[in-house]
Amino acid sequence: MIRPLQSLRHARLNRHEIAGSLGDMGTFLPLLVGMASQNGLDFGASLFFAGLFNVVTGVVFSIPMAVQPMKAIATVAITSKLPVSQILAAGITVSLIVLVLGLTGLIDTLNRAIPKSVVRGLQLALGLSLLMKGLQMVTATHAWIGADSYLTASLAALGVLALFSARIPSALVLFGAGLLLATWKDPAVVGLVHFDWTFPHWTPIAWSDFTRAFPVAALPQIPLTTLNSVIAVCALSAELFPDRPATPRRVSISVGLMNLVAGWFGGMPMCHGAGGLAGQYRFGARTNGSILFLGGTKIIVAVLFGASLMALCRAFPGSLLGVMLAVSGIELSLVTRDQTTRKEATIMLLTAGACLGADNVAVGFVLGLLLAWALRLERLFTVERERVTKDSGIRNQESEVGHHEPARAGHNER
Hints:
Oligomer: single chain
Low-confidence stretches: none
Distance between the termini: 81 Å
Order of helices and strands: HHHHEHHHHHHHHHEHHHHHH
Mean pLDDT: 83
Radius of gyration: 26 Å
Structural class: mainly alpha
Number of domains: 1
Shape: globular
């Protein structure tokens, strides 16, 4: 049962909570700006709903639960130039499935059915795709020196390295630098950004958008959402906040409801995430006060400036956005480091290689799943053979003992 007043009693707002609210910007900003500039996603509507569900999340959960873009959908959208309608359809589809899994309690069953090595393979493929897309955006500038050039990208990369160990989100710094460069390169952009009391509006989505988006964007997102946005985030919350952990049922319902509302009004596909929770905790967030502050800020900016923010997104330097996406791709790929055994690594690499080689995430997912299940069956048969051999050996020993017993008995009688 949701007890908002009980959750709000934990909320605090101080400099640590405000700093912690920025801990997830490294994931949020690159993917949102990328989809806005590359796909035409409504920046204002997405920012509004991200803020709205930050607030809702802050009321429902007493921990700094992050609201992130759905990484698989965002990566496929940016690298494959998906239409906005298909991006929204993919988010709605995933949320509906996750909501059903949460309400029925099947979320744990699905998590057991899909091996982590397959999920890690998807994450590796998506991370590398995002990295390559970022580098392609940098090389597409075809300029060595300028506001949008190789030099700009090089300085941005050095800035990321300089901030690597600092408690300052590099994505936030690069976002600010990109806005300054965009206005310096084209001062007319400043005039396009103005107070515009804009609220999200209904966005029609056709049935064909759902059927086309499912295999390429929704299918790879489902295991990522169940593992990272539900199972992993609940496990991390129990570790960081043992007195008030999140439960899989509540988290899956939260993820489901977010996009079933926002998706029909142009909001980007959103979920929770273990990485976002860890990032906000690392930056100082300890309560839902950080999330409430962040959500309120997003809503105010989105309502005041609305659609006019799209002008800045379109003028954002490709070199800086490329570096931001490349860094996000590396971060997404680094989560695969836990696949240390030979079998796990083989499944992960086959999944990732098939995704990239076939240029189809669904193909990679299916092949990785088949290999994982085949190895699992092979292991079961091996265990069964060992058990049969052991039982046979025990029976042979018992037979030998029984054969010698009468002889011993006769010897004793004599």
